[in-house]
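Hi there,

I know you've been waiting on this one. I reran it after we fixed the sequence typo, so this is the corrected version. Both the input and the resulting structure follow.
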Amino acid sequence: MNNDLPASLLIFLRDFLQLRLGLNYTRRQDSELIRKIRLAAISFDYSDTAEFVSWLLKSDLSEKEIGKLASYLTIGETYFMREKKSFDFLEQIYLPCLIRKRYTSGRHLRIWCAGCASGEEAYSLAIVLRQILPDIQLWDIRILATDINPDFLEKARKGIYTKWSFRNTSGEFRNKYFTRHGDNEFHILPEIKNMVSFASLNLANDNYPSKDNDTEAFDVIFCRNVMIYFSVENARLITDRFHKSLVTGGLLVVSPVEMSAMIAPVFGKIDYAGLTIYQKGKHRRAEQKPLPLPAPLPELPSLPEVKQSKIPLPEIIPAKEPDPGPVIREDASEILAMAKARADAGMLKEAGELCERGITIDKLNAAAYYLLATVMQEQGNDSRAISLLRSALYIDHDFVLAYFLYGILCLKCGDHTMGMKSLKNAGLSLAKLSPEDVLPESDGLTAAGFKEILDSITL
């Protein structure tokens, strides 16, 4: 097979993918793009990659062909109750309030799962509604699940899954909502399956909101791990259209790895347990302004250099004036556990104060700096968060999540070089772990699970 791809064709291919699918492949991703296009060429029965690309550029692809191409260029892997905090917010806070309101104003709920892949997320939403609505048969419920990939949609409509799709749930969850067939096949119950309708939709080019495809007046739109494939400009255009597809007070739920700069500034924000959830009409903020670059930072050394050099610890960020007696005798780990509980409950001010106390007790506790950095980030103080993360990384040179968050914040502030370097360092530290190892300060996220997130950003 001829895998040569001239530079001129590669440029046209990137433009084509941006225009037709909205996918943003930069020059630094050329090797990955070529690898994926080679596989796509084979599936389209082309033995010459350049010939296949030439055909793409001049063809009017059908919806099925676009979906087939997209399946080689995006990751469709997901699982039930993925990123559970988002479901917790819906189940415990947002939906109960909305349901109480709708009891007297028409019992209806509308949810859109955009970029649904093989359906686990859409069915998870249906299960959440089953759990909180004892009289669900009296409600008019619409769950629309869309994707560009016809193979994903076909699998989703079947509602048949393997054990791998349940890696974030209990056996009780699986037994309650699925019937087992053989050792590794589980069929979703018909009453759950029938709550979801699946349809093909290209977020980059198709028309929405529209009555024609029933993409209007949603209470919730889930679109997670999808924006990472788009440029910031396209992501903002798409989320602006989502805003128009929501009712006033409706929610847009995205993944934690998708930066706020990618979300249209018409949304307000809700901070919940370390997550940012976007809302239409309420808590509306002024139009986003470019974040100022932080003060110049010394370049972080690569991991091998850190290991081999003796770098003095930076001056620790001043904490609150310590109580000379009881505070010094407190256990820093207990203080941080309390801080984390406050942060998870959205009590950011109290969580930050407890983190400061923890740092006062143990100035070499990298976890304390990291937790405080996440609190500062949620409060909009990115410069302070960056400074705290630097302290954490000088103390612990293999702190995967600190490298990751540092990289994300640098990218957000416009420092692309430092941002990508830090994400690379996160990958190098991650490679030292076994896939089943749980990352420190991650609430149970395994190295394998985090690699999926990291790969989706750095590929």
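Quick highlight: The chain has three domains: 7-73, 84-279, 303-458.

Best,
R. S.
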